[in-house]
Design a protein that fits this description.
Helices cover 25% and strands 23% of the residues. It is an alpha/beta fold and 550 residues long. Strand 2, helix 3 and strand 3 form a beta-alpha-beta unit. The chain binds adenosine-5'-triphosphate (ATP) and magnesium ion.
Length: 550
């Protein structure tokens, strides 16, 4: 893909592994748990993993880390596949599932039992917590730690056969209750959980923990570089311990990088689920959500998200990225790629008294990209302009339409305002203007140039469009710290309006984006837009209106 690649520690690492022959084929993977929709943080992980594979001629797997059926579902699996493809990536071969390795994990658990490295523990969850110790104090051994291999084998087999209550026993690794790393204090390998699984149905009443599964999944798939975020750094010694003590087919190495955090944004599936569940948003793909599906529906181009992920870099130091950077990547992309069109959101009628009938004008779809072609736009005696583009009187700074002054209509003629009509309340309801003598596209014959350009739509051919004006979901730069989201939600994150749009927009495909001249970037809603009922989402304004940054 076309983004310039910046050097980072992962690229350096892989290059040196290839140079030294430590690794010959680069295999990475993106391993989401299907318990929610992916968010912008996952987009970072996707671009890192798929991007590295692409750069170094390797492959990247998509693997569902589905070891906890309670919160997982097929809906999330389908959404995640779609999101990855929409971002522009294709995984290697079939989608993989941790659950398809359950038998192997089970056999490996027995292997540890036979080696005297795992035991069935009957402590309750509370008791286990009490004996785990703390960051400063060592833990104490479980009274079940010295069960015989034979007893462990029998009990673990009975766990698998569904003979015990949920939560009554666990299988633990026998490592070191005094380890300074709490992850090494006889961690749990298996829990009893008699729950149906979205992939394996009722096959298993026990499920492996994420810790016991993760590294072995990588080993099974021959992953050369297992890349994850920094919170798993302390788990690496445990993953390495499993790899060392199990007859695995390959030895993956793990490298951690800092999570992507954005201000004004929540990047936690659990918290995003809260917004969906409490009705703060219309769903996971609500255009205000930082989910990939939400950003897509909002009209953020996949290329802009990829560029942004590259631009923020990949490092091991935590930080918070200004969301204005993402918005600016979106603007840059759309400025180049979005065709122009015209719509008027707060209409005021202008009657051009010395013009009769109508005329078809050919307008460029893009000011600098001739290859984007032209479109026909109808011009007529009555047009809509934006109410705020007219004033009866104004000083020189106001470069729009003023009584007695001229303005150019975008792509059309220069007009001069002569008088206005008002209703009983004194509100202007129509402006009367005249076309000044001129050739289309030239300055007026008398040489008096207009100061500004405004957009317009002919009243007789205008089509009505629903406009969903979206803004940032949160008004607070650090929403995740709030106890309840209600206090930090931006009350104006969605305002629905109506617009008069040029007729060409009837042909707009779902998900096609436009710059509505002078208003911002808009996209035909992926779900609700039809040629009978036009629905455009505001993607973003032409400039950053949040002031303090960008
Ligand atoms: P969440 O905290 O939102 O639930 P998660 O880490 O639990 O996210 P997973 O499904 O386990 O979600 O994530 C899949 C991959 O995406 C993991 O490798 C994880 O490290 C990575 N990832 C998740 N969030 C971010 C982020 N903010 N920045 C970079 N990578 C991320
Ligand atoms: Mg996770």
């Amino acid at each position: 893909m076309s983004t310039d690649l910046r050097s980072n520690f992962l690229r350096t690492q892989i290059q040196s592994d290839l140079d030294s022959g430590t690794v010959t084929n680069v295999v990475t993977r993106f391993p989401p748990e299907p318990n929610g929709f992916l968010h912008i943080g996952h987009a970072k992980s996707i671009t890192v993993n798929f991007g590295l594979a692409e750069q170094f001629g390797g492959v990247c797997n998509l693997r569902f880390d589905d070891t906890n059926p309670e919160k997982e579902s097929q809906i999330f699996i389908d959404a995640i596949r779609q999101d990855v493809q929409w971002l522009g990536y294709q995984w290697h071969g079939d989608v993989r599932y941790a659950s398809s390795y359950f038998q192997q994990f089970y056999d490996w658990a027995h292997h540890l039992i036979e080696e005297g490295l795992a035991y069935v523990c009957d402590l309750s969850a509370d008791q286990a917590r009490e004996t785990r110790g703390s960051l400063t104090a060592p833990g104490t051994n479980s009274p079940f730690r010295d069960r015989s291999i034979e007893e462990n084998r029998t009990l673990f087999t009975a766990m698998r056969d569904g003979e015990f209550e949920d939560g009554s026993r666990v299988l633990r690794a026998k490592i070191d209750m005094a380890s300074p790393n709490i992850n090494m204090r006889d961690p749990i390998l298996y829990r009893i959980r008699a729950l149906p699984h979205h992939q394996t149905g009722d096959d298993w009443p026990i499920y492996p923990t994420y810790d016991f599964a993760h590294g072995q999944e990588d080993a099974i798939e021959g992953v050369s570089h297992s890349i994850c975020t920094l919170e798993f750094e302390d788990h690496r010694p445990l993953y390495d311990w499993f790899i060392e003590h199990l007859p695995v087919p390959s030895k993956p190495r793990q490298f951690e990088f800092a999570r992507l955090n954005l201000n004004y944004t929540v990047t936690s599936k659990r918290k995003l689920k809260g917004l969906v569940d409490d009705g703060s948003v219309a769903g996971w793909d609500d255009p205000r959500m930082p989910t990939i599906a939400g950003l897509r529906r909002r009209g953020y181009p996949a290329a802009a998200i990829r560029h942004f992920c590259e631009e923020v870099g990949t490092s091991r130091s935590d930080g918070v990225v200004d969301v204005a950077m993402l918005e600016s990547a979106v603007r840059n992309e759309l400025n180049q790629k979005a065709p122009r069109a015209m719509a008027v959101i707060d209409p005021l009628k202008v009657v051009i008294d010395n013009f009769e009938g109508s005329e078809t004008l050919e307008l460029a779809n893009h000011p600098s990209e001739a290859s984007m072609g032209t479109r026909s736009v109808n011009f007529s005696k009555e047009i809509w302009i934006e109410r705020e583009d007219f004033r009866e009187e104004a000083n020189k700074k106001f470069k729009r339409l003023v009584l007695g002054k001229r303005v150019r209509l975008r792509g059309a003629y220069v007009i001069e305002a002569e008088r206005c009509e008002k209703d009983d309340a004194g509100e202007v309801i129509a402006v009367h203007a005249c076309l000044v003598p001129q050739q289309l596209g030239e300055d007026p014959d008398d040489g008096v140039k207009p100061k500004g350009v405004i957009h317009w739509v002919a009243t007789d051919t205008a089509v009505v469009a629903e406009i969903r004006e979206y803004d940032r979901l949160f008004a607070d730069a650090d929403p995740a710290k709030a106890d309840d989201f209600a206090s930090v939600l931006n009350p104006n994150s969605l305002v629905v309006k109506q617009a008069y749009a040029e007729a060409s927009l009837v042909a707009a495909d779902n998900e096609s984006s436009f710059q509505f001249e002078r208003l911002g970037y808009f996209v035909a809603d992926r779900v609700d837009h039809t040629s009978e009922h036009l629905v455009f989402n505001k993607i973003i304004g032409l400039r950053d209106s949040w002031g303090s940054h960008g």
